[in-house]
Amino acid sequence: MLYSYRIGSEKVLRPYHLRIKSHFLVIITLTNIQMAIVQNPITGRTKKTFGTAVFSKQFGNNTMRSKAMDVRNPRTEGQVNQRNKFSIIVDLIRQVLPLINEVYAGSLTSMSPYNKITSINVKNAFVGEPPELDHTKVVLCDFTGSTVKNVTLTGQPDQVMDIAWDPNTTNADELASLLTFVLFNCSTNEAAIFRDAAVRGDGVASVTVPDEWVDAQTALHVLTRDFSQILAGAPKGIVKFKGGADLSSVVK
User: CB-based contacts of 10: which residues, under 8 Å, 6+ apart?
Assistant: First the structure.
């Protein structure tokens, strides 16, 4: 669609923009003025703000943007719940993000591992009204593959946590591979990572959690390696929730 403008005796007919002789170039869309490149003798290379206009420099050009006249910050029950869920998951995931990035090993192209796992958990890891985090539903990686089974997590005196499992494989490389344990405090959502803490074929291990975790339930995720799948030149990492978040997982 064309628009016609008259400036003095000069008529301008162009689809989206007009040039004014005072050296303003104004970009006009069908709905609103979105940006202006300012270069005139009065303002010069203007920065910061003037009224609702915000001046800045982008790619070597002076630009002007318009600030919103009114910013709404809705606080309906649903929106507050969503923000709270997001905040809880962000705090949780940031503690184990290096491990998550290591497992995904640059395999994602459309989003980061952080964004992917945050989205999954905000959608699926909460129950009840108001929403509460259910640690049995927390996901640290959505890969599938060879992993242990029949895992138990049992609290012992002095903050010792006994872990037992079925190796669930006959592959010699997998049986000899090392397991990494991720434990979460179900009360505070704090994480403790125990890298290469046990050999998969052993079937049992013990770890010690912080003193501050006493009386809290814990949730266990286990990182295994699937030697039938190769990612970034190494056996693919598989991280799954395996046990806990129950009375037997309470720290003593």
Answer: none
Check if the beta carbon of residue 27 is closer than 8 Å to that of residue 17.
yes
> In the block, which residue shows the tokens 């910013």?
71
pLDDT exceeds cutoff 80 at 74: no
CA distance 240 to 11: 69
pLDDT tens sequence across 144-182: 999 999 999 999 999 999 999 999 999 999 999 999 999
Q: Does the 78-249 domain belong in CATH 3.60.15.10?
A: no
Quote the CA–CA distance of 117 and 114 in Å, as a whole number. 5
Return the pLDDT at 58.
63
What's the Cα-to-Cα distance from 108 to each of 103, 115, 142, 145, 226, rounded to whole Å? 11, 11, 12, 17, 18
56: three-class secondary structure by DSSP: strand
- In the chain, where are the structural domains located? 3-66, 78-249
Q: Which residue has the higher pLDDT, 146 or 46?
A: 146
